[in-house]
Amino acid sequence: MSEKVVVPKFEIPSETTHPAIKAVAAIGLLLLGTTAILGIAVMHRRSEQEAAVAKRDAIMAQRAADAKAADEKAKAEAAAKVLAAQEAARKAEEAKAAEKAAKAAAAKAAAEEKLAEADGDKSGHHHHHHGKASAKGSKSAGAAVASKSGDDKKSGPKSTRDNAAIDKLLASFK
To answer: How far apart are CA 129 and CA 23, in angstroms?
Structure first.
């Protein structure tokens, strides 16, 4: 074995990468890093905008609720005013009806008195028929008879007597 084996010489490239490929890889990594940073910034900005929109919507909803509450309050106040006006109108109608009843009771009392005088009640006693007047009318009829004392018994009813009875009746409503 004295003969030597000759191995052909091959040139094997070095195990290190080429500097151009290193530069391309570095640029790629830098591009990937900046893209990630930009993506994070965009997502952060979008979440801030969504929070601002949600806050604006909450403020608008609160204002709408306040406006609705104010409308409801105004409607309630208007309804209360209408009810008060209706109550006042009802009381005015009752006062007119009581006034008419008082006038009728006073006229009836005067007519009964005239009839009693015309029948010739010579004993000088004065008879009153309080049971025939209503509860409200009895006060006014009594006031009309009380205001009559001292007047000429043969004369007709005067307007001042009716007015006094009406004034007393109206004062009792207040």
So the answer is: 129
Asked if 144 contacts 161 with a C-beta cutoff of 8 angstroms, the reply is: yes
Give how far Cα 155 sits from Cα of 110, 113, 143, 164, Å.
10, 11, 18, 18
The CA distance from 13 to 26, in Å, is 22
pLDDT digits (tens, 9 = 90+) for 37-68: 999 999 999 999 999 999 999 999 999 999 99
pTM (two decimals): 0.37
- How many CB atoms lie under 10 A from the CB of residue 102? 25
> Do 162 and 103 form a contact (C-beta atoms < 8 A)?
yes
On whether the CB atoms of residues 148 and 117 are closer than 8 A, the answer is no
